[in-house]
Amino acid sequence: MYAHHSAYSKVILNDIQELSIRTTGGSDMVVAYDDNVRYLYWWCLRSFPNKIDYGSNPTSSVKNAPVIVASDDTNGKLTPVTRANYNVFKFPRIWWQNMDYWDLDWKSIASERNADLAS
User: Fold this and answer.
1) Considering the entire predicted model, what is its pTM?
2) Contact 90, 69 (CB under 8 A)
């Protein structure tokens, strides 16, 4: 695995589902998302018939969505469309793996092993 969605992705999805149930009684709430967060959300929101995938260019249709999930890349494009009608919450979307192992080779592994055996 190279990168993973952070735990916040699931928290956001749970909040969207809860908000939709409270406001529409089901999954009829309008949710908008951009192309950078499409992966994961297009699948998890498949039961939301009113979702809006606005790609990288938000239009005035996103104002119909009480929830807009956006990446930093399109967040600046949303401001003129949404004005001050939305609150912004920032969460990490992807967690990168610890990549300390990239500089390992058999020689350094053997060296560490021999040092451990000697002590």
Assistant:
1) 0.72
2) no
Pairing of strands 3-5, 94-96: antiparallel
Three-state SS at 87: coil
**How many angstroms separate the CA atoms of 89 and 25, rounded?**
25
Q: What is the pLDDT of residue 25?
A: 97
| For residue 3, pLDDT beyond 80 | no
50-99 pLDDT per residue, tens? 999 999 999 999 999 999 998 888 888 998 988 888 988 887 776 666 66
Residue 57 C-beta-side C-alpha neighbours within 13 Å: 0
How far apart, in whole angstroms, are the C-alpha atoms of residue 77 and residue 118?
61
